[in-house]
Amino acid sequence: MLRALHSAASGMEALQLNMDNIAHNLANVNTTGFKQRRTQFQDLLYQNLVAPGSNASTSTEVPTGLQIGLGTRAVSNEILFLQGDYMETGNELDLVVEGRGFFQVRLPDGQIAYSRSGAFHLDRDGNIVTAAGDPVEPQINIPREATKISIAADGTVSVNLPGQPNAQQVGRFDLATFSNPAGLNSIGKNLFLPTASSGDPVTSTAGENGTGTLLQGFLEQSNVNIVKEMINLIISQRAYESNSRVVRTADQMYQEVNNMVR
């Protein structure tokens, strides 16, 4: 019965973490470029009351054994980098990466962070920046007198200037890819940092070396599926209730034992 209490408690703790993860996914259903996380579980140690394959007699072996598990735990919440739906905005500085790849952003401390959110703006100096004011890398400056901004599928940024018949190239968005993007470290603000698990970034021109291409005037929406998340929420709630009933049942069994002693 002690094992039952501890196993049920571990299940309730793991399911609480799963509920927290689902709540985080649902809270970011309208966050541009957000990627949902999926909680993964792992069973804990087993007590071998009878080890599988142990000798039942001098000439026979136990075919299956008797092992009692000690519960479960949450081991990871993997990021699922599935493409989100597109929303047309018509904004010249809104971009979608169609396929693999991350935008590069320079943080105030000099680090390069990576993002799937293509909602960009201009700062007072004409630099293309994120909503938090962090400039893209490499830095792209738009002249004040520019009348139109065009961003090609390969990331080339061109502007139309008064009195000049041809568009002038002012920079280019380069994209970064990772061998294991699920190993990136989320730091908030739609940004990721590389880790030993993700591998080092490989920077390429959009459309080359397996990277996606850019689409101007659109934003990538969150890839969270509300219906599936609500179903996962119900499943987790019912599993939590089942584990809590195990705790109550084990407590009642202890109570019966105590009454027998009396």
Walkthrough of the structure:
The protein is of the alpha+beta class. It has 2 domains: 118 residues, no CATH class; 135 residues, no CATH class. It contains 2 helices and 19 strands. The chain has a 3-stranded antiparallel sheet with strand order 11-12-13, with no helix packed on it. It has a two-stranded antiparallel sheet with strand order 1-4. Strands 2-3 form a two-stranded antiparallel ribbon. Helix 1 packs antiparallel against helix 2.
Tell me the layout of helices and strands.
Layout: H1 2-27, E1 37-43, E2 46-50, E3 66-69, E4 72-79, E5 86-88, E6 95-98, E7 103-106, E8 112-115, E9 121-122, E10 128-129, E11 148-151, E12 156-160, E13 168-172, E14 174-177, E15 185-188, E16 191-193, E17 202-205, E18 213-216, E19 218-220, H2 226-261
Query: How much of the residues is beta strand, in percent?
Result: 25-35%
DSSP helical segment count: 2
What's the alpha carbon Rg, rounded to whole Å?
A: 27 Å
Which of globular, elongated, flat, extended, rod-shaped describes the shape? Answer: elongated
Order of helices and strands: HEEEEEEEEEEEEEEEEEEEH
Seen as an oligomer or otherwise, the chain set is single chain
Helix content: 10-25%
Mean pLDDT value: 92
Number of strands: 19
Mind describing the biggest β-sheet? 3 strands, antiparallel
Q: Structural class of the secondary structure composition?
A: alpha+beta
Q: Order the strands across the largest sheet as they lie in space.
A: 11-12-13
Number of domains: 2
Poorly predicted segments: none
